[in-house]
Structure formats: C-alpha cells, structure tokens
Design a protein that fits this description.
Layout: H1 11-17, H2 20-27, E1 37-38, E2 47-53, H3 60-80, H4 87-94, E3 100-107, H5 108-112, E4 118-119, E5 180-191, E6 194-205, E7 212-213, E8 226-230, H6 242-256, E9 262-268, H7 272-280, E10 284-285, E11 293-294, E12 300-301, E13 305-311
Parallel strand pairs: 6-9
Antiparallel strand pairs: 1-7, 2-3, 2-8, 3-5, 4-6, 5-6, 9-13, 10-13, 11-12
Amino acid sequence: MAPKNLSKTDPIDHANAKSLVDFERDYLPPRSSYTPYVIPSRSPQSEVDIELHTPETLSSAELTTLLDLVAKTSGKHYRASAMGWNQRKKRAEMRLRDLKYLVVRGRGELDREGGGEGKDVGGDEKEGEKVGEKGEVKVNEGRVGRDQAVVGKKRKRTTDEDADTEKSPPNPSEKQPPEILGFASFMPTYEDGKKVIYVYEIHLEEQLRGLVSIHNYPIQSNPTPIFQLQSTLTSNPRRTKLSQTLMSLIQHAAEKIPGVEKVMLTCFTANAAARRFYERLGYEVDEFSPEPRVMRGGKEVRADYMILSRGVGG
C-alpha cells in the first residue's frame, strides 16, 4: 500500500499532480521521435492518433466505449476467473483519478471502415487480454490521488455516469470525435512499498491487427498534446506493433519518474498469447505473483492470474 502523508516532493505524488501537458513534457518522448504506421490493406493516407488523457478529460460516452472494448476483448477471461466480470466495478476502477490513458483513435480510411472484433495484443489469436487488476487482495482496488486535467476542454460528467447505461445516439449536427480503436491505461503508484508504474489495461480493436511502425521516419511536431502517427509506405521497414509502442511509452515514463523501480501488470494465466507478448518485451513473473497452493492430497492449484514486471534501468 502507498505510504501515508506523502510529501509534496514525493516523485509519485508529484507525477500524479502534474497536468497532462506537463506529464507529457517531463515523462514521455518528444513527438519528433514518433514514427509513422502502415495499416495493411488500407490507404497509405490512413492515420492513427494516440491521445493522452485522464478520466476527467474523457467524456462519459468515451469511457463507456473503453469499457465496452475491455468487455469485448477480455470478458471471456474475466468470466472464467474467480473474480468474474462486474461492469459497474470495472467502470469505477477506470475512473480512478491517477490513471493515465493512451487512447488510440483512427482517422481517414481507417476511421471510416468501422470497428471489428477485439484482438489480443500478444499474438494472432483473437482473444483479448487483461493486464491491470491488482494481485490477490488488491483485485479491483485503486489508489486515489491528485489530478489536474488541463489538456483540451474539460468534459462535463453526467450524474448517471456510474450507472451501466446505454450510449446515447450521436447528434448528427455535432462534429463527432474520431472513433476510439484501442487504449492503454497506467498509473504511477506504490506496490508493496516500491515506486512502480502499474499497467491496468491494454486493448486494441481487431482492425488494428498487424499495424506496424516505420522506424527512422520522424513526423513533424504537433503543437497540440496528441501523438500523431501518420501511415506511410516504405520498403523493407523494421516492424513494431502498435501494442509495443503503447508499452514503450509507459516504459519511457517509468524511466523518467525518479525512483520508479519497475513496470508491473497482471495477466490472466489462461491468456497464453498475452504472456508471450509480455515475455518478448522483457517481462518476467514478479516476486509478488501468487504462488501455487498445495491442497490436501498433494494437488497443486494455480491462481488464475499472475503478476509480471519489467525492471527500470540497467
């Protein structure tokens, strides 16, 4: 648990108190280092944007879209686990004030082609993944801290936001934001007394399968707090999946926040594709991952989730 009475100079408390503009400036790589993405079988004019948000800068409808994506890509794993699927609790967790969101939006051809089934970021399988419930007794727990959401217009919240309500139909007279196609969420926090970044979720729509970046092809800096990744075709590219880019942004923040020791996440044991994905990124079973229990008669029972982590520095 996080220590009480954090000082104003505590790096975790300080990071969570920053505005999104300051968080991006201090902890994320410059936009000039971002690279374009190729969208297979689509126009080279297609674009993908990654936006930095907090729960306060996401509208109720946008938060519902993210929640629906979690249910679509990971509902099966939740329901098969001991924790089950509770949409109301998950929505409450997704509104924790210290959470940061990297929201993926499609534009141009990609945006017009519409959605698809959710995908597992770890491989070619269509199963989703869940990467953020806090282990053992910490499942569905969060840490409340300070947040200043000053990027863009702060969106109004409705009084029924905690309820599992249906999405309101879009108003055709109003300009609608580009379609949300995926997201990752994370939080600078304490875990067992150590400074960490905990990854809560990472989910992508099926239509982003195979989306890869073209390295050494920097884009122009964007004056707005949005990471714009414009697709361009080139020969013999070095391939990096969008899911890897999202994880690398989180890892970069962990490297920049003073004192952070590791990036942690939770993965369902049954989600072999997700575990392979994380292992390729250097994640290993964490020391605080639950150990198998030996029952009477010698039967070994394994938990339905594991905690993975990757160290910072070195």
